[in-house]
């Protein structure tokens, strides 16, 4: 039963495991950084304490999520050298500089201002602190920009030349590589997904506290802001997803064939298969529930438009249909569920029951992790749908792996599983514990240690007392 677990499959499972674990945290921190920027901006503009309290409440959660995202990302990147050394050698001249740009711009930008954002509210002026928060939010976006540019180039490679030794080299213009055909669509779709992931997480936390006390002003405010985001951004996300799908149909048609479950070509209009069980061996979707010609209408805006199927693709170039078929439906289903919650919240506002409608709060609480599930399902659709290629149409996944034995890859995979669930499991548990605490007036934000941050000099410990006094620092100076 485990004969298929050769070194290649184990390397793929290992990368899928680490990248899926990693993707949860950037998907949350990208949106949360922007949410913190909005909260601090509203506090500076209005002077209302509630925005400052919510800023400090979510700042603690952001700090942990950001740290776990950085750590999991660094670990993941090492696999390019261990399990995928052939890919690194062949595509390094193109992929390497793009990933270096991400470090030199986004990572340095975030790292340079993160300390000020976390610990500097009582150390620097309000405007300077807000500028630091804006820079961190910008850094998370720039990081997504470069990473998605890399991934999009692997999906729709352009602007390259192939050297005599088989390496991919950049062509005359780097812009053709960075702004490859799928990149703009993927960037918009992914960033909005991150915003919705954060919105529903924040909304779920607000709903949890409203169910316990509907008069809590802080819970009301965060829930209201989250529902505005759900109501406004979800329709835009569905439209962006449709545009991304049309782009994928143009450049990666077999991925769309797998998403739609079209094993056969349809010369007179293709049906939209809602549900079914794909059978790749029999080349059919069993027990299919479908709407005639609707797929042609959605993808080509014509009921009778012909649609090619996987029968036009060689068998060794077909992606795993079952995985792509179902992950796509999970993503789309959650998207429409988000749309329903957004519409429900608008109805509740109109009826002045946004804070007094327990069933809406229960639904929002159930939907709290939905963004994480949706981005993971979307990521699976994108990456599995690209198979059997790691650089679409040019480099097969089987030809990109390192020459390793299966036991070596299996040992490192087992180590990753044990360490990730132990370390990041504790981190997630602590985040949930922070979310379970009721936001209140006078939130303290991120606390520093009694001796302050560690000094590299080693001989300049932070003062724990005011110079010349025996009393400790006041409480408002100990907590930021």
Structure description:
This protein is mainly alpha-helical. The protein has a domain at 454-480. 65% of the residues lie in helices and 6% in strands. Helix 1 (7-46) packs antiparallel against helix 2 (49-77). The N and C termini lie far apart (56 Å). This is Cytochrome bd-I ubiquinol oxidase subunit 1 apoprotein. Pfam families: Cyt_bd_oxida_I (PF01654). Belongs to the cytochrome ubiquinol oxidase subunit 1 family. Residues 468-480 have a biased composition (Basic and acidic residues).
Question: Which descriptors would you attach to this protein?
Answer:
480 residues, mainly alpha, two-stranded antiparallel ribbon, 15 helices, 6 strands, disordered C terminus, cell membrane, oxidoreductase activity, acting on diphenols and related substances as donors, oxygen as acceptor, heme, electron transport
What is the fold's blueprint, element by element?
Blueprint lengths: L6 H40 L2 H29 L1 H4 L2 H35 L6 H30 L4 E3 L5 E3 L3 H5 L4 H30 L4 H35 L1 H8 L11 E8 L4 E8 L2 H7 L20 H30 L7 H9 L3 H17 L2 E3 L3 E2 L9 H31 L38 H4 L2
Helix pairs in contact: 1-2, 1-5, 1-7, 1-13, 1-14, 2-8, 2-14, 4-5, 5-7, 7-8, 7-12, 7-13, 8-9, 8-11, 9-11, 9-13, 11-13
InterPro entries: Cyt-d_ubiquinol_oxidase_su_1
Family: Belongs to the cytochrome ubiquinol oxidase subunit 1 family.
Protein name: Cytochrome bd-I ubiquinol oxidase subunit 1 apoprotein
């Amino acid at each position: 039963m485990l004969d298929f677990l050769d070194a290649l499959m184990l390397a793929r499972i290992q990368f899928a495991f680490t990248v899926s674990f990693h993707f949860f945290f950037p998907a949350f921190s990208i949106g949360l950084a922007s949410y913190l920027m909005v909260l601090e901006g509203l506090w500076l503009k209005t002077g209302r304490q509630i925005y400052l309290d919510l800023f400090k409440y979510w700042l603690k959660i952001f700090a942990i999520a950001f740290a776990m995202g950085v750590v999991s990302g660094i670990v993941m990147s090492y696999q390019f050298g261990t399990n995928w050394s052939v890919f690194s050698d062949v595509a390094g001249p193109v992929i390497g500089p793009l990933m270096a740009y991400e470090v030199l711009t986004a990572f340095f930008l975030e790292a340079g201002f993160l300390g000020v954002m976390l610990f500097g509210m009582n150390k620097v002026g309000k405007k300077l602190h807000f500028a630091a928060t804006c820079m961190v939010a910008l850094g998370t976006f720039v990081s997504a920009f470069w990473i998605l540019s890399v991934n999009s180039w692997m999906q729709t490679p352009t602007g390259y030349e192939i050297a005599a030794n088989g390496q991919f080299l950049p062509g005359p213009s780097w812009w053709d590589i960075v702004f490859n055909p799928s990149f703009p669509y993927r960037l918009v779709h992914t960033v909005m997904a991150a915003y919705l992931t954060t919105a529903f997480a924040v909304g779920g936390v607000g709903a949890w506290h409203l169910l316990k006390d509907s008069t809590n002003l802080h819970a009301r405010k965060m829930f209201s802001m989250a529902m505005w985001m759900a109501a406004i951004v979800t329709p835009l996300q569905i439209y962006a997803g449709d545009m991304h799908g049309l782009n994928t149909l143009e450049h990666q048609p077999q991925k769309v064939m797998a998403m739609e479950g079209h094993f056969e070509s349809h010369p007179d209009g293709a049906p939209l298969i809602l549900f079914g069980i794909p059978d790749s061996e029999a080349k059919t979707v069993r027990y299919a529930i479908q709407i005639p010609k609707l797929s042609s209408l959605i993808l080509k805006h014509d009921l009778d438009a012909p649609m090619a199927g996987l029968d036009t693709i060689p068998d060794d170039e077909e992606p795993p249909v079952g995985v792509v078929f179902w992950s796509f439906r999970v993503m789309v289903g959650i998207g429409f569920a988000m749309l329903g919650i957004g519409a429900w919240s608008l109805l509740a506002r109109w009826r002045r029951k946004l804070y007094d409608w327990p069933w809406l709060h229960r639904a929002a609480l159930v939907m709290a992790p939905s963004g994480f599930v949706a981005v993971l399902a979307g990521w699976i659709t994108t990456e599995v749908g690209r198979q059997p290629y790691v650089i679409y149409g040019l480099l097969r996944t089987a030809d990109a792996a390192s020459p390793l034995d299966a036991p070596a890859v299996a040992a490192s995979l087992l180590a990753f599983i044990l360490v990730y669930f132990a370390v990041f499991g504790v981190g997630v548990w602590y985040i949930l514990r922070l979310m379970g605490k009721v936001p209140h007036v006078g939130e303290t934000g991120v606390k520093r240690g009694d001796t302050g941050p560690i000094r590299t000099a080693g001989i300049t410990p932070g003062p724990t007392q005011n110079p010349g006094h025996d009393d400790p620092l006041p409480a408002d100076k100990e907590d930021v």
